[in-house]
Design goal:
Chain lengths: ~110, ~375
């Protein structure tokens, strides 16, 4: 909920500065390894945005896949979830390099 | 995370008093109502948000090159990724974008929505981290810690794993050796801060109300009340919760996660984010290990899947077992924070001397002439 409010704050501020009557689309980038549940964020966003300039806006979410650097393999490998082993060697000597993003990318205004 | 548990903002108090923040509603020239929290505090003052008293200028800082017209092509971030969109009926649609492939104008799955001419809509790029505001407050706290040579820790765990008992014993053990101050986070009551104050250590209670975690803004306010001494150890006891506090940086040097043997060794698998974010794992209530089914090695192994090389110590806050290593780690941390502060002060002093010498050299020919 705190995150949804954070998103809404930036969205409403941007909409106001651009003289928008309505926000129709909100586009986010959420990494697969970030702390956010897509469904939950969408639900909370709808709840907090209701009645405001972004009420009813469609949430578009780009899900950046997770990736890690496997130290034994010396290679970048895909990582679906935290705690998963390296798909190459089965080990856990992994340093996450991608997938923790939580960014508000752009909004569509009318 | 708060989007998971549905907790909200508001009702935050420090020592029973509101954080000095209230909702401020005002009307813009175009008739829209605008509300935002604002604070009356020297440190988190008005000017950091935006000035009041007059109407907000509209469209003054509106940068045209930041946006692109609706229906024009745009490019996605590199690497293939999933693109989700919620339909009007609440169901989700997903499709895969190739790496860096552009969305041609008015085509693609959402062709209708992206088509030019249907609505006088336009895209405005924002590119801002959702946690940017918290992170800015965290950076301010971190600067205060650095300036004062303070070693600050963010203690996280599930409720009941022994954080407060750990603090009380730590305070008693370090008495006379290291100055120490505590920030206590709980949804309600000042029971924990009362327990800490009973030991003689200064403590501030933050009640998060509906919130399930401390954020950097609350901690900033608590710090201005607490005013911790130079070269001290600041222990921040977060709200008992293994989910949300993982995402919120408070400006601490390290997150320390407690796991008690009465909880089950699979906690790191169930709550990976927290163990991924931590720099030290304390296995607490180790004196009870013979009486419960808890595989210490497995617990540490699971935690290291989330955070390779995670330092782990086995302790008992009740009996004091394993405390020597924990106290040594704390004292090293404080010593390093003080050394870093002194180093930067020394560096600044050397720079002052250099600059004064340079000034003197410039002044010398002038006065000679």
């Amino acid at each position: 909920m705190a995150l949804a409010e954070g998103v809404l704050e930036i969205v409403e501020e941007t909409a106001r500065r651009n003289g928008a009557a309505r926000v129709t689309v909100v586009r986010l980038e959420l990494g697969a390894l970030s702390h956010v549940e897509r469904e939950a964020l969408s639900f909370c966003f709808d709840a907090v945005a209701k009645g405001g300039v972004a009420g009813g806006a469609v949430l578009e979410i780009d899900a950046t896949p997770g990736a890690a650097w496997c130290m034994p393999c010396g290679e970048r490998v895909p990582l679906e979830r935290l705690g998963d082993p390296c798909p190459r060697c089965g080990g856990w000597q992994l340093a996450v390099v991608q997938g923790e993003e939580m960014r508000l990318k752009e909004i569509e205004i009318a | 995370m708060c989007t998971t548990c549905g907790c909200g903002h508001g009702e935050t108090t420090i020592e029973g008093k509101p954080v000095g923040e209230h909702e401020h509603v005002h009307r813009h020239a175009d008739g829209t109502l605008h509300s935002h929290p604002h604070v009356h505090d020297a440190e988190h003052g008005h000017e950091t948000e935006h000035a009041h008293g007059a109407e907000h200028p509209r469209d003054m800082e509106h940068a045209h090159d930041m946006e692109h017209a609706h229906g024009t092509a745009h490019t996605h971030s590199p690497g293939p990724h999933l693109h989700w969109r919620q339909r009007a009926d609440g169901t989700w649609h997903s499709h895969v974008h190739g790496g860096g492939s552009p969305h041609p104008a008015g085509t693609g799955v959402f062709g209708a929505a992206h088509a030019p001419g249907i609505a006088p809509a336009r895209m405005v790029q924002i590119e801002q981290d959702i946690l940017a505001k918290n992170d800015a407050y965290a950076a301010r706290n971190r600067q205060l810690f650095a300036d004062r040579g303070i070693f600050a820790l963010n203690l996280v765990s599930s409720p009941g794993s022994g954080k407060t008992t750990l603090l009380v014993r730590t305070i008693e053990a370090l008495r006379g050796r290291v100055p120490l101050a505590v920030i206590e986070g709980d949804q309600q009551t000042s029971l924990d801060a009362d327990r800490i104050r009973a030991t003689g250590a200064p403590a501030v209670q933050v009640n998060t109300g509906k919130g399930c975690h401390l954020d950097a803004h609350m901690v900033g306010h608590a710090l201005s009340t607490l005013n911790p001494a130079d070269g001290s150890l600041v222990l921040i006891e977060n709200v008992g919760n293994l989910v949300c506090p993982a995402a919120f940086d408070l400006g601490e040097a390290h997150k320390v996660v407690l796991l008690s043997v009465t909880e089950g060794e699979d906690k790191p698998l169930k709550y990976p984010d927290m163990f991924h974010a931590a720099d030290l794992l304390l296995i607490n209530k180790i004196d009870l290990a013979p009486h419960v089914q808890f595989d210490v090695d497995a617990a540490i192994g699971y935690a290291r899947r989330m955070r390779p090389g995670l330092l782990a110590l086995q302790i008992s806050a009740t009996t004091g077992e394993g405390f020597a290593a924990w106290l040594a780690w704390l004292e090293q941390g404080v010593a390093a924070a003080v050394a870093a502060r002194d180093h930067s002060i020394d560096a600044l002093r050397r720079r002052v001397v250099e600059l004064e010498a340079a000034l003197a050299r410039r002044a010398a020919p002038a006065s000679a002439a």
